[in-house]
TrEMBL record:
It holds the Pfam family Creatininase. It comes from the Bacteria. Keywords: Hydrolase, Metal-binding, Zinc. This is Creatininase family protein. InterPro entries: Creatininase-like_sf, Creatininase/forma_Hydrolase. Belongs to the creatininase superfamily. The keyword Chaperone does not apply. Its cofactor is Zn(2+). It comes from Larkinella bovis.
Length: 254
């Protein structure tokens, strides 16, 4: 039993070990090019949360990883078979129920560890923060924690790309098809300049942007790259967990 993973912990243990920080990993279930499993974002969320929590636990941080939510916002992929969409309003309802439990039971710090680009919890946390003023609510997307260009030849992809393929080759190579069966992840660009440059936003109609559902060429992916990136991501996130767990909520600013 890993004592910082709720799904493995028992009540005997939970009963005598106070928890400072709950961690809620949140993934998605969606196509990832031809070669990666639908649970790619869930596998990444599970592994990154568990390893980051292990590192934090070893430094004395009282953290607890809740089970990963397996469905995310896939509103741009309505025509991609078995991409399971949760609306943001549904996510907020789930989050609200979880926060209500934590708040009632005196676990006043929560980190949502996001694993999917379509999920966006900031506006929800603004609302829920008003409803639960004792809670300290934070969110972090692990894929934004490091500069990908120092790890990967093609860092510009953002879905089933070299980074995600390398991670899966490290974490679950048994679920990755040979890379010669993967599409090239070629993606069309917006016609509108501001959208192309990223300073205006609109949702992409995924199936019109990419033929294989991937964005970013996965061909240069290796398990070694994935291992190095995984170790550095989890090291960095464990630092956040330690800081959050120790944080005095009456002294947030300096
Ligand atoms: Zn993904």
């Amino acid at each position: 039993m890993r004592p910082y993973i709720l799904a493995e912990a028992n009540w005997k243990h939970i009963h005598d070990h106070p928890i400072e920080l709950a961690i809620l990993p949140w993934g998605a279930t969606e196509a990832h090019n031809y070669h990666l499993p639908y649970a790619t974002d869930v596998i990444e969320a599970d592994a990154i949360a568990a390893e980051s929590a292990r590192l934090a636990w070893e430094q004395g941080a009282k953290v607890m990883v809740l089970p990963t939510i397996p469905f995310g916002v896939n509103t741009g992929q309505t025509d991609i078979l078995l991409d399971i969409n949760l609306y943001p309003s549904t996510q907020k309802a789930i989050l609200s129920d979880i926060i209500e439990v934590l708040n009632r039971q005196g676990i006043h710090k929560l980190l949502i560890l996001n694993s999917h680009g379509g999920n966006d919890f900031k506006t929800m946390l603004r609302e829920l923060g008003v409803q639960y003023p004792k809670m300290f609510l934070t969110t972090c997307s692990w894929f934004n924690t490091l500069d990908k260009s120092t790890y990967f030849d093609e860092p510009k992809g953002d879905h089933a790309d070299e980074m995600e393929t390398s991670l899966l080759l490290h974490l679950r190579p048994d679920l990755v098809l040979p890379l010669d069966e993967a599409g090239d992840g070629a993606a069309k660009k917006w016609k509108v300049q501001a959208l192309r440059e990223g300073w205006a936003w609109a949702e992409r109609k995924w199936s019109q942007v990419t033929a294989d559902t991937g964005i970013g060429n996965p061909k240069a992916a290796t398990a070694e790259k994935g291992k190095r990136y995984f170790e550095d991501v989890t090291q960095k996130i464990s630092g956040l967990l330690v800081e959050l767990a120790k944080l005095d909520m009456t002294e947030l600013y300096e």
